[in-house]
Amino acid sequence: MKLHVLLIAILLLACSKQPSEEAVEKSTQVPTVEDTTAGILNQSDIDSVYLISTYDYSDRNLDAHKANLKELSDSGAFSVIHSVVFSILNNKHQSYFSSNLYYELLFSTHGNLFQNNKEDFAFIVYDKRFLRISIVVYDDSKNTYLELYRDIKVNNGLKTVECNYGSFGTLDYQIGEELIYQRDYIIKNPKLHLEYSVCKIVEITKDDDFVLEEACFVKGFSSEGHSLCISTSSVYNSWECLTYYPNKNVFVIFYGQAFAD
Fold it and tell me: Of 159, 139, 123, 147, which is closest to residue 246 (Cα–Cα)?
């Protein structure tokens, strides 16, 4: 009898040490993006942290910056560039910019930016009303034009990444700084400015300008698919790329590359 009781006790003890089916299932699962922490843009981040354009900070003294952009516009250089960019647009976009004469077109690109298999566009413009550069995106599925930072929100996902990367100012302001840096060159030969890719809608895995092994990524954002990539240097191969996050109707900066020549 004692032997029988002892055997039952041993069996009960062994069973109590076996992991449950639920525990086994969890332990063998591959961790998802949400299970890790470093370099991840969480839902709460997307909901609460949006960038304000550098131009819209009331405490920033941008008088010199704006005066330099106005000089480029007043020189007629922007007008020359506008005429070239305008001439290659379809009638719909020409009608829009003809109705918004305060915009001077400086660059345009197109592709499946809003992930609807449509012909979306991005335009770099000089806004003569506010003496600033703006990035205007066109959502073909909704037939709407939106300014980044103002009409549609932008989140800097790179703030979650621990790598040696940083930049000053929002992308619209950085483009303005690059134009000012090239001021003499642009005034002398405005059309040559168009040979320099200011922005493009592209799959970065299929474009030689992007050196992925030297860049900063936000985990959870695939490098597959189309992104809006902005050149942040006319001298070095430096870029920042945004992807559209449809569930939140927000653009997220998920890729940064500096001095990757």
Answer: 139
